[in-house]
Amino acid sequence: MVNMRLAFLGPPGSGKGTQARILAEEKNLAHISTGDVLREAVKNVTELGKKAKSYMDVGSLVPDDIILGMIKEILRKNKKGFIFDGFPRTAAQAKGLENLLDDLGLKLDAAVNLVVSDDEVLRRLLGRFYCEKCGADFNVNTSPPKVEGICDRCGGKLLQRADDREEVITNRLKVHREKTKPVEDFYRSCNLLLDIDGAQDFAKVTASILETVGRNRS
Ligand code: AMP
Asked: Same domain, yes or no, for 70 and 17?
């Protein structure tokens, strides 16, 4: 799987970030989360961060040309295997990615689609916290900290992501339905879409992804 190129789709809170991180580590692939790249840019107040912040604050998508410019740079440094997490998010981004890969003589192997209901997304995201000091993730439903509001690892304060408030989550789900569903249709029409039940127990989701991606490759 060393040279495998995958895109992880699925609504916010579907577990795509965590699953992508695990698979990337296990298979020695680069894990590329556009959300993480953008959050880092916002934190460091770079030109990219300044352009992206107003969209991210309200749960809207950052414009396609900004995202595709960012991906072009990233692909230049990652010609081997990778997992995109949270990209592509629009049909234009999916087509743009195809063109960028074409130019490099590469292609995507599969789009892994984690399927989770809106109610489950809301439950998961409202319970999600991260440590402001070391970045460790917690979830009051599945992996609560030993002491409320305090990081088990370093004692740092636990915070909620600014876009994990209920009204922003509702908008992110709406955006997902309107903009990202066509991405599923695009990959389904190219026979690259692999649907995975993301509501299963966490370890089962990992096993299903490994099994389905492996089967599809052979
Ligand atoms: P995420 O961490 O993937 O949920 O992304 C957080 C926010 O970053 C999203 O709500 C968008 O505002 C922005 N974002 C991340 N990836 C993309 C993308 N591929 N296209 C447009 N906006 C994105």
From this structure: yes
| 158 plus 95 within the same structural domain | no
Nearest C-alpha neighbor of 2 from the set 30, 42, 41: 30
Q: Is residue 175 part of a domain?
A: yes
> Domain total for the chain?
2
Residue 13 in contact with ligand 1 by CB distance below 6 A:
no
Nearest CA to ligand 1 atom 11: 61
Q: Do residue 39 and residue 147 come from a single domain?
A: no
Q: pLDDT tens digit string along 135-161?
A: 999 999 888 999 999 999 999 999 998
For residue 69, give the nearest of 93, 43, 98 by alpha carbon.
93
Atom 12 in ligand 1: residue holding the nearest Cα: 56
Considering the domain boundaries, does residue 123 fall inside one?
Answer: no
34 CA to centre of ligand 1 in angstroms: 6
For the entire predicted model, the pTM comes to 0.85
Tokens of 34: 């556009």
Residue range 18-42, pLDDT digits in tens: 899 999 998 899 999 999 999 999 9
Does residue 5 contact residue 109 with C-beta atoms inside 8 Å? yes
